[in-house]
Amino acid sequence: MKPHDFLQLGIFLGALLALTSLLGSFMARVFTGERHLLTKPLGWLERLIYRGSGVDADKGMSWRGYAGAVLAFNVLGCALLVLIQMTQAWLPLNPAALPNVPLDLAVNTAVSFMTNTNWQAYSGESTMSYFTQMAGLAVHNFTSAATGIAVALALTRGLAGKHGSTIGNFWADITRSTLYVLMPLSILFAVVLVGQGVVQNFREYDKAELLVPYKTQVAKLDAAGLPVKDAQGNAVTEEQTVTEQIIPQGPAASQIAIKQLGTNGGGFFGVNAAHPFENPTPLANFLTILAIFVIPSSLVNMYGRLVGDRRQGWSIWAAMAALFLVGLAVMWWAEVQPNPVTGLTASMEGKETRFGVFNSVLFATATTDASCGAVNSMHDSFSPLGGLVTIVNMMLGEVIFGGVGAGLYGILLFVLLTVFIAGLMVGRTPEYLGKKIEAREIKWAVVGLLAPCACILVGTAIAVSCAAGTATINNTGPHGFSEILYAFTSAAANNGSAFAGIGVNNPFYNYGLSIVMFLGRFAVIIPALAIAGSMAVKKVSPPSTGTFPTTGATFTFLLIAVILIVGGLNFFPALSLGPIIEHFLMLSGRSF
Amino acid sequence: MKTILQSIRALLVFTLLTGALYPLIVTLIGRTAFADKANGSLIMADGKTVGSTLLAQKTDSPRYFWPRPSAADYATVASGASNKGPTSADLVKSIAERRAKFGADAPAEMLTASGSGLDPHISPAAAQQQIARVAAERKLPAGKIAALVAAHTEGPQWGIFGETRVNVLSLNLALDAAQ
Asked: A147, A246, A357, A470: most buried, per Cβ within 10 A?
């Protein structure tokens, strides 16, 4: 904890605040259809997209119509992505001659990218062709983020709208999100990343002559290319001198820019943002972390503007910022404590020299808060309490800024629950923004909040009680349990990061986590849209003395309490079996 | 049905826009403005590629500075980390082996594997600790090696971001050039 680290944190918070207001006001103009900076240069393209898609973007949709469009667009996109992966060997832009992706991995990856999770059971450089990365995966980085923004906008209109039963037009929302927000920011950011050293090309993998050739043992192959076995059936190895290093290439910068800005998180390379080609310098790293938070944070600001009272946005933002800072502080402290088992303080296992402990911790906090899931260090090797914070951040429902759009609609479910509980406490009908909250909305909100919790706990329980679930863990003892718990938490929260030691490229995890990711996404989106629909038609009544104010410190405090109680009470037993007990065993010097 | 047709058309439009146009724009600007960096910061010598400044190479020879340990043995396809947890007996064993190899005074990051397995940097302390060995192997004065290390030490970027570090491959190439 050097003064230098606090300086970086200060600059990070300052930059985030400045961008939040700036981008928040820009997005408010974009999504209300007002003229803005990009109307003139790009307006024609917006109209062209509508014509190309054959949609009437001015027509308001009912919540059912909106939900139907969300599902059709996403599920068809998912199917197309499965198809691209399973035929990539025959498609262009595959200089490394990578084979077609097998079905279970293709389905998992497609669901993962459609749901903004970007869980990766593969290493990009050895599995996905440039075509798949670019025309398949990156497209979903955009569309899943745009879908998130669209749902958040629909819910905002439902809560604050005064125009009857429609909640906006899905096609207009995703088009404007992509064209005016995601793409311009991504182009800007990607070019800066290239300037820092992130690769962006369509070259074949290069070969470099090693400075010091070395000898290694490799499996001996016979003339047919099959491994040779000795009399006992063991593989025979032979000595080989390695003189070359393969240097992977590809259109990485364009993909990395959107995977950060869209809180997708799926790396171009297997080790994600720890890879020097994805995240080459400390400046690139700083901007990469900022990119995770900038849109989710700005959307909250935009929300305040759209509901006509900016304080509504800031009181939610304050709750998010407080939870972020507490998590950061705990993880930072935990990562610089001595570990009696390894005898090291401030473990650098799984961390990169150029980032050190602080920039690894800041990244890990942001990526698990915001359902991004990119990593610049290996969470699996964090201290028990540091790892605990990453899991808890996700368990709280990805509402600490949260995924692009998903963070806003997610925390609005918590806001409704908070208002409802406050109403019960004082014995009045709860209202939010002048509209009454009734049983129907609370039922939907509870479905949206509890569905991911159920996925995490039921999924983990099934995995730990069957052989397929425990066969591929990388660590034994409580840490092995944490790997499984992390996997289901990450999938249900649509985060995508992992305690990556666990082997998940097998049918059990590929299909199991696909189901969890799908439910974790759409079992929240459908309730959010249903609430939007039922709130949209309600009359707005002026606030009275009995109205519970949803701005100010009391509300922010109550909101934080509700988030922590739902998260804490649901998961405390599971966490005790994993990171918490591991912490105490570590202190007593036990290893596994 | 209408929604399904619209979805298919919209998917094609979005694929063209974000899957083709967008990466092409970035490639065009990126390669025009930063040609070397867009292509992987390759280091050329005598017309041959000898590495990338951003990727560590496996280096066992005592005549050179050693990079940080790599759980994937410096593989680039695919890169990898150990993912061993804080109470892992395997990790304890690896640390003991590295301590035996690098010396009891090796700093913590030389005892632990990096996140990418390709970490191109070591800390100034880790470089200092190797100066005596490299100087002895090359029969060069330690002061000369120390000067090379100092010349290859980068402070935090813009004086603010990240850690102070030494690029191992660049340093090793400079060692050979100085011989």
From this structure: A147
Domain ranges of chain B: 2-38, 42-178
Nearest CA in chain A to B27: A200
Whole-number pLDDT of residue A74: 97
Q: Which of A116-125, A455-464, B16-25, B141-150 has the lowest mean pLDDT?
A: A116-125
> pLDDT, tens digit, for every residue of A48-106?
999 999 999 999 999 999 999 999 999 999 999 999 999 999 999 998 899 999 999 99
Asked if pLDDT for residue A236 goes beyond 90, the answer is no
- Averaged over A142-168, what is the pLDDT? 92
Burial degree of B162 (CB within 10 A; 0-12, 13-18, 19+):
buried
Distance CA A319, CA A557 (A): 7
With CB atoms and an 8 Å threshold, state whether A195 touches B37: yes
Residue pLDDT, tens place only, B28-55 = 999 999 999 999 999 998 889 999 999 9
**Kind plus residue range of the DSSP H or E element containing B28:** helix B22-33
**Which pLDDT score, from 0 to 100, does residue A347 have?**
81
What is the β-pairing status of strands B165-167 and B153-154? antiparallel
Answer whether residue A47 is part of any domain: no
Asked, for residue A146, whether it belongs to a domain, the answer is no
What is the number of domains present in chain A? 2
Entry pTM: 0.95
Q: Classify the C-alpha dihedral A419-A420-A421-A422 as positive or negative.
A: positive
A482 contacts B85? CB cut-off 8 A: yes
Same domain as A511, residue A407: yes
Tokens of A244: 């070359």
Provide the residue range defining the domain that includes A380. Answer: 329-571
- Chain A: give the shortest CA distance to residue B93, in Å: 9
Do both A240 and A333 map to the same domain?
A: no
- Asked whether residue A147 is assigned to any structural domain, the reply reads no
DSSP A235-296: BPEEEEEEEEEEE--SBHHHHHHHHHHTT----SSTTGGGSTTTS-SHHHHHHHHHHHHHHH
Here the tokens at position B7 are 């979805």
One domain for residues A398 and A507:
yes
Beta bridge partners of A251: A200
Judge: A383–B116 Cβ closer than 8 Å, yes or no: no
CB contact under 8 A, B6 and A54: yes
* Distance from the A446 Cα atom to the nearest Cα atom in chain B, whole angstroms: 29
Residue A319 above 80 pLDDT?
A: yes
Q: Strand A338-339 vs strand A344-345: parallel, antiparallel, or unpaired? A: antiparallel
How many residues would you count in chain B? 179
Same domain, A548 and A427: yes
Q: What is the reported pLDDT for A214?
A: 86
Among B18, B76, B86, the residue with its CB nearest the CB of A142 is B18
Note whether residue A63 is domain-resident.
no
Instruction: Tell whether A466 and A565 lie within a shared domain.
Output: yes
Q: Chain A partners of B28 at a C-beta cutoff of 8 Å?
A: none
Among candidates A80, A194, A344 on the partner chain, residue whose Cβ is nearest the Cβ of B37: A194
Give the SS3 label for residue A435.
Answer: strand
The answer to whether residue B125 neighbours chain A at the CB level (below 8 Å) is: no
Q: Give the pLDDT score at A163.
A: 67
pLDDT of residue A186: 97
